[in-house]
Amino acid sequence: MSRAGTLTRLERLDLLASRLKAQEPMTVAAIAEEFGLSRRTLFRDLAILRDRGLPIEADRGRGGGIRLHRTWGIGRLTLSYREAVELLVSVAVAERMEAPWLIANLAPIRRKLAASFSPALRDRIDGLAQRIRVGGAASPAVLQGFSRPEEKSAEALCRAFLEMRLLGFDYTDTEGSESRRRVEPHHLMLNYPVWYLVAWDTGRGAVRSFRLDRMRRAQVKPEEFRARPAAVFADAFAGIAAVAS
User: Fold this and answer.
1) What mean pLDDT is reported for the chain?
2) Locate the HTH deoR-type domain: which residues (predicted)?
């Protein structure tokens, strides 16, 4: 009995798809012989796989090659929620930088990412770039005390920033004093490579700016907040004037 007779069509299609994804050199003749198929049946199976979304290329002739197009994986990328949030923030930063070789392509990328989020978050995603400021390079004095931000705190900040939820964290100020803060994360500002969070500090009832590398044990809170008027933060963007105390 031929191999084709021992496999159902679904099994054969799955096996053929697996062989294609392995990117092994294959020819029409070799695959037809291996599966015990006529060339007509093989091309019919390939057509079904194309309909399923596999971009299959086949050279003409009995000895022609069969392969997936080199970009076959594009569009099938799976991101975790954390990865999608961090990528959205990165796209928003690039949009604010207005890099000429990127700006033309960022809007469709943002829209495709936004499509994977709930409708409640999509309006916030569209306005994300407006909540990010990009300034000049950090001063030598700032760089002297700069350290790599805590990864989990950076992750929590990105999520709270996108979802507009309160954020709690431990903070060490310039004098070495430590405190627990609870804030509304309204804006991010980059003075490369130093990130600042410009927030409404609920405990002090005022705008405060925090360096991300000084934040520890950040946690996203369940409470949401509404955007405050831009005028509230005007002083904070004048050279990061409203410093954390």
Assistant:
1) 82
2) 9-67
